[in-house]
Amino acid sequence: MSGKQGQRSVKAIEITQSYDENFMASMDGRTLVARELRDRLHALSADLGGWSSLSYQERSLCRRLIHLERLVEQKELRLATGGRFRPMDENVYFNSINALSGLLSKIGLKRRVKILALGDYLQSKTSESTKGKA
Asked: Residue 62 — very low, low, confident or very high, per pLDDT cuts 50/70/90?
């Protein structure tokens, strides 16, 4: 993303209403929304034992969950501002909440322990101590 200073990105700063598997890659990663969505996906996958331990189906559900969660937040923001910009359809909002609840139920609401090899643990501790010195 090294363009000219002051140049605008051609990438999106917000998610689209319709889901696309690569919605996060199509966003400008420098925006607060994009960073927050990446952090949420990372936290969700960490709670489930790490991205590498998830099946394809679980990864797909995680991405959809993050997208839908942001859509619900957008609807709530619209509601909080009195719908001045665009009125909110309550049926769509409640359907989104139900869909989000269903995805959370499918993925599971309990944290899983990430099994870590001793070498990986020692490597992470070495890299942490190196970062602290820099």
From this structure: very high
